[in-house]
Design a protein that fits this description.
The protein is an alpha+beta fold. It contains 11 helices and 11 strands. 45% of the residues lie in helices and 20% in strands.
């Protein structure tokens, strides 16, 4: 069930609070999140990883660049009501200088099993890559209208619309499974996990992607994310952030470095992002932590 960590990770990646959110719908487990910004200035969503399939509905025209892992998949205009389907277990990020308004429907494996039956899946879906889909647009706008209207039975209505969305995705976008080897382990082996941990410790002061962590473990990003979470109980992104904050705590307790120096030494690009992530994990600001009692 998504909780505080779920939203904290997303708010840290986006650097903002959502305009609206409806989490963990009863039967599908879907989380519906609206991200909106009116400013005309450079914006970059920092790399995020999720074990959800994300259906993104663009609510206003804009120009943007988008990446999956290390690959740039889009650069240019995105029309109103354009649709993307982002697979689970792949690091994603995007940037724009335009105002934006996005509706994200985050579908866990449970959402697909609620339609296809228990034990079914995982399902691989094709990505329309900012193409149009009339039914996704209609369902997304109905969910958004229900969220704005509120009232009784909101979650039941949104949940039913999400079940219809999942059925549509399976009918139109499902691709036959082709790449999952039957012998794939259930969790990352201790030896592979140690290789990832060694890489993380060595690169805490640098940018480190999930793709590089997956490469160290010898798996694709998709399989690595699932195996790593099974072994550690955390996503690779969450594990990396926790390791950075643990190092930051040691440096702050030492008291010889300022907050910005600690942020840079722990792989954060600026003190603002560092402070948001630190406060989300520790409950206080880095400065308060440094200046407080030992």
């Amino acid at each position: 069930m998504p909780g505080a960590d779920f939203m904290q990770e997303r708010q840290a990646g986006w650097g903002m609070r959502p305009a609206a959110a409806l989490l963990d719908l009863p039967s599908t487990g879907t989380s519906v999140i609206r991200w909106s910004r009116e400013l005309t200035s450079a914006f970059e969503m920092r790399p995020l990883l999720s074990d959800h399939t994300i259906v993104s509905l663009n609510l206003r025209p804009m120009r943007a660049e988008a990446w999956l892992g290390q690959s740039k998949v889009w650069a240019g205009p995105i029309g109103s009501h354009a649709v993307r389907i982002v697979p689970p277990g792949v690091e994603r990020r995007w940037s724009t200088t335009d105002p934006f308004d996005l509706l994200h429907l985050m579908l866990p494996p449970r959402a697909f099993q609620s339609v296809a039956g228990q034990g079914c899946g995982p399902f691989t879906l094709s990505d329309p890559l900012y193409g149009s889909d009339t039914l996704i647009r209609q369902l997304g706008l109905q969910i958004l209208d229900a969220m704005e209207g509120g009232g009784p039975y909101l979650t039941e209505l949104a949940d039913g619309l999400c079940r219809a969305l999942v059925a549509h995705l399976l009918r139109r976008y499902h691709l036959p499974a082709a790449s999952s080897p039957p012998s794939l382990p259930r969790a990352l082996s201790p030896a592979r996990l140690r290789r990832v941990e060694t890489l993380v410790r060595a690169r805490l002061a640098e940018e480190l992607t999930v793709a590089e962590m997956a490469d160290a473990a010898g798996y694709s990003e998709f399989h690595f994310a699932r195996l790593f979470r099974a072994a550690t109980g955390r996503t690779p992104y969450r594990y990396l952030q926790e390791a950075r904050i643990a190092r930051a705590c040691r440096l702050l307790r030492d008291g010889r470095a300022g907050v910005l120096a600690v942020a840079l030494d722990c792989g954060f690009k600026d003190a603002s992002h560092f402070s948001r992530v630190f406060r989300a994990q520790m409950g206080i600001t880095p400065r308060t932590y440094r200046d407080g009692p030992a």
